[in-house]
Amino acid sequence: MTRFDRRLASPWRRAIVAVLAGSLPVLAFPAPSWWWFAYVALVPWILLARTAPTGSRAAYDGWFGGLGFMLAVHHWLLPSLNVFTVVIAGLLGTLWAPWGWLVRRFLGGVPSAGRVGAALVVLPSSWLMVELVRSWQGLGGPWGLLGSSQWQVTPALRLASVGGVWLLSFLVVAVNVAVAVLLAVRRSRGPAAAVTGLVVTAAATSAAWVWSPRPDTDGQVRVAVVQPGVLGGGAGAGAEKRFAREEALTRTLAGRHVDLVVWGESSVGVDLAGRPDLADRIAALSRETGADILVNVDARRSDRPGIYKSSVLVGPHGPTGARYDKMRLVPFGEYIPARSLLGWATSVGKAAGEDRRRGTEQVVMDAGHGLRVGPMICFETAFPDMSRHLAQDGAEVLLAQSSTSSFQDSWAPEQHASLAALRAAETGRPMVHATLTGVSAVYGPSGERLGSWLGTDASEAAVYEVPLARGVTPYVRFGDWPVHGALLVLAALCATEGARALRLRRTAPGPLAPPARTVHESPVRPGR
What is the pTM of this model? Predict the structure, then answer.
């Protein structure tokens, strides 16, 4: 046993190391945005799990590492959910327990070349299954997918157009596995297999770079983003001041020949059907600017019960009738899952006091000037399937209306804005990310950044020249094929392991000799 192993003999010490190792990948995401670090960030976690004394201990390493990862990428929730953030991270961390077990299964001891080769496929596939399961909105959604750390890397964005963020996650984990083998395995042919894996990955990446079609640009539109910024005042006064600020900023767009104006999430705090005076004021702005205005209403509706978050398009004559009601709500922020059981979260943080209602379908809107747009609201931009479906339905520009004002001084605004780059690259459609208080950003159809971000200190109306694109990316055409491939890999693994166990049972040697029989003699009585 090495000195390092002796130091980790304590289960609690090992758990702390696993938590710290699991938290390292957060540095690859904004705000640090060390995208290159993603390719080695998992190595300490992998090295820890492979040296676990037992399979169950490796599973615990996976669990505690997952806790550290989830807590790190969601640390900005702590002021809102307090201790509940740790509870959620602990529950979701269990998803990595099988991954930790598989790390030891394939990389423990002195792995052969065959085991290393299998690890380069199985471990990334297992990681993808974790990301797939936690991408369910009821478990918090796909925030912090490992592949999304590559949002500013041009070759990675090209790969995203082929297999989405899932393909990027697979490749990032595969590189981490190869690096861990090169660092830890000195004997056997394992390192050679790792190098071969890296070469194959580089070759496949290069082939995808050459083969994947590039979006064909076809004209451009001028889109304005209105970001009012941080305003003082109470809740009611703040809503009025925000609307007035948005109104004043929008007026500055008159004469600038914009085709569409986009306001951020919750930019209007009342139902426009119940406040025709506000609807008239927005319509007047539309006439002044010569463009439709996409606002976001966060209010109780007058035509049906409940509170909705809705993207509403307003033209020169008032609301056009185009409306999208948010479908995927933020757990605890906009509704509480199993409120009868978890409603106590409202007493320890800023959880939703009343559940908002869900929309039923995505909507592509005609925004005038022949422009068709697909709106999403808040963390819906984290879901690759939503932007993909909008592109399939004919959206030429993807729009995101968001607000991270509750997390203004954290890493959340930058990380949220970066997601739009992935969605643009995946679909080959430009994407506009408009917020109330920053960060607002616009990306072209290849995921390239257009113009400057509007930071958390900005209060302005900015106009962006947004190129339009034709064609269908492989990801839009074929969907989440890396996930389907990962499922096949794990199904094959289960079948192989099952067959192996059955074969071992059948070939197990029987007893070499029949068991000895014990003779029970009657006691000898005296005198006989």
Answer: 0.90
